[in-house]
Amino acid sequence: MRSADIVTLSRIPILALIMYLVIIQFNAWVSVILFGLIIALDGLDGYAAVHDESKGKVSLGVYLKASVLHDAAALKTVKGFKEQIGKSTFYAPRMDIAGDRIVEYSFWALFTFLHVLPLFVIIIVIIRHSIVDAFMANKGTSSRMKTRLAKIMYSSSVARGEINVVKAVTFGYLILQYVAGWPSMIGYALVAILVINIILRGVAEVGEALASNRK
């Protein structure tokens, strides 16, 4: 098993612990810190995958230059090895997507179960993901977008960073809302922003799939 897969799978027991701590309303900041660890591991599995594929040629410094500083030379190097990963290991990109889906769905389900969020929110998310996954099935991984809208809304570094920040802030706040009693209106506003982002990204992905099919 690749080290990247081990990192991805290690997020699941931490996720289960967070859900338990939230349900019993244990110290909110413990859950928030653990959630931060899950986010960090999400970034680490990307580095681990590139590090393995490059046989150690890509250091953590180079990876951070590419992902954080957007250094042109580092981006070119990292992108090249990322493209090789999809070719050499069929399931690699799908493992990463599966890990992200598990974390996201678990939090949506958790806060719906705890009546922090209305049922229709998770229904919207499920419908969105189901439609997008169906359209993107023929395309395989969605990491290499071609259409302008998809590049702007989905595959650009800015878009990826923005959605990750919104998810982190939203779910982190919902933990504090339920466990520590923080204001619910702010939580609803953050959820609205996140859902709108998810829908817009979904529209971009479906548009990409349709454009690719026409070609």
Write the SSE topology.
Layout: H1 3-23, H2 28-53, H3 60-67, H4 72-88, H5 92-113, H6 119-136, H7 148-155, H8 157-180, H9 184-214
Using only C-alpha atoms, the radius of gyration works out to 18 Å
Q: Tell me the count of domains.
A: 1
User: How many beta-strand elements?
Assistant: 0
Per the principal axes of the C-alpha atoms, what is the gross shape? globular
Specify the biggest β-sheet.
none
Give the termini separation.
37 Å
Measured as a percent range, the helix fraction is over 70%
Structural class by SSE content? mainly alpha
Strand content: under 5%
Mean pLDDT: 83
Q: What's the number of helices?
A: 9
**Which series of helices and strands comes N to C?**
HHHHHHHHH
- List unreliable stretches of 5+ residues: none
Folded structure, characterized:
The structure is a single chain. With 215 residues, the protein is mainly α. It has one domain. The chain is 81% helix and 0% strand. It has nine helices and no strands. The chain has helices at residues 3-23, 28-53, 60-67, 72-88, 92-113, 119-136, 148-155, 157-180, 184-214. Helix 3 (60-67) crosses helix 4, helix 5 (92-113) runs antiparallel to helix 6 (119-136) and helix 7 (148-155) runs parallel beside helix 8. It is globular. The termini are far apart. The model has no long low-confidence stretch (mean pLDDT 83).
Outline of the structure:
The chain has 215 residues and is mostly helical. It is built from nine helices and no strands.
